[in-house]
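Module 6 notes. Inverse folding takes a fixed backbone as the condition and produces residue identities as the prediction. Think of it as a translation problem where the source language is geometry and the target language is the twenty amino acids. Below is one complete input and output pair. Work through it position by position during the lab.
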């Protein structure tokens, strides 16, 4: 089959977007408007890039895109994603530093960090943890629309007790269903060999459309994807960043202006180093409180 020229391809995409919207209205919205948040429905009707994201991820098969849209919008209403903010999530989750956005990979994609050693499976806090991940993703989506993320699972000092397969599956679903086209790559760093079986299951969840995005890397290999300026020292990096809360890190997002992210001036670098001592003291205080609360962590 001959390939469409750019103009024909653009027209075909427009037709697919319109078909998706019309079928959503006729097949999913009728008599079931309470399933979705009206704000999401309105956005679906006006934001071409949003519909294109679902279509692209489902290889332009409208039936498949509609299933994805239905599941995604129901999830958004169930989790109250449009109204997620710091006040509705337990403060201690922010204080752990188990999940946060910081830095860029070598392609200029924002890094979304998961510190696996801080997780202990606890059914009582599962929903709050899932909302916490949604909070970060939604916050990023609003600040940097259309910009992909690189997920980093930092497995240093973790073991089988830190793996919560239900939670990992949820994180994967966030990128497979709820935020299509967001995932640049998912890097698993320093994975203990004892977890090989668990991550084989994870690979099966990713599916063929995302399996190429999964990268396993040792401490030395991770620098293939992320420069040392955005890697912590235990990964062989030189980034002086230490997570602390409040405030949230990276409040002022910006599109990278060089291959390795925003250029940091010498004054900024010195300022970061000057804050290290106070941040470490604060971090130690937070960790002491959190260890008492959750034994080892949360997510």
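Target side of the pair, the amino acids:
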């Amino acid at each position: 089959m001959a390939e469409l020229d750019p103009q024909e391809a653009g027209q075909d995409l427009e037709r697919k977007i319109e078909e998706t919207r019309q079928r959503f209205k006729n097949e999913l919205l009728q008599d079931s408007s309470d399933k979705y948040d009206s704000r999401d429905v309105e956005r679906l009707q006006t934001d071409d890039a949003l519909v294109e994201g679902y279509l692209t991820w489902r290889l332009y098969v409208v039936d498949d895109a509609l299933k994805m849209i239905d599941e995604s919008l129901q999830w958004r209403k169930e989790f109250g994603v449009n109204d997620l903010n710091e006040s509705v999530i337990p403060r201690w989750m922010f204080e752990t530093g188990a999940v946060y956005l910081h830095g860029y990979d070598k392609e200029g994609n924002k890094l979304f960090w998961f510190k696996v050693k801080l997780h202990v499976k606890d059914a009582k806090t599962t929903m709050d943890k899932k909302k916490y991940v949604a909070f970060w993703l939604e916050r990023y989506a609003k600040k940097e629309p259309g910009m992909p993320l690189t997920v980093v699972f930092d497995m240093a000092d973790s073991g089988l007790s830190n793996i919560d397969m239900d939670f990992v599956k949820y994180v994967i679903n966030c990128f497979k269903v709820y935020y299509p086209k967001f995932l640049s790559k998912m890097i698993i760093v320093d994975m203990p060999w004892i977890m090989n079986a668990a991550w084989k299951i994870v690979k099966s969840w990713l599916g063929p459309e995302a399996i190429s995005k999964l990268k396993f890397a040792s401490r030395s290999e991770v620098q293939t994807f992320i420069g040392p300026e955005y890697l912590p020292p235990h990964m062989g990096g030189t980034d002086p960043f230490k997570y602390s809360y409040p405030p949230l890190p990276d409040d002022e997002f910006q599109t990278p202006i060089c291959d390795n992210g925003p250029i940091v001036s010498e004054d900024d670098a010195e300022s970061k180093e000057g804050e290290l001592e106070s941040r470490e003291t604060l971090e130690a205080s937070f960790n002491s409180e959190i260890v008492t609360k959750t034994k080892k962590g949360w997510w």
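Reference fact for the lab report: The CA atoms of residues 268 and 274 lie 10 Å apart.
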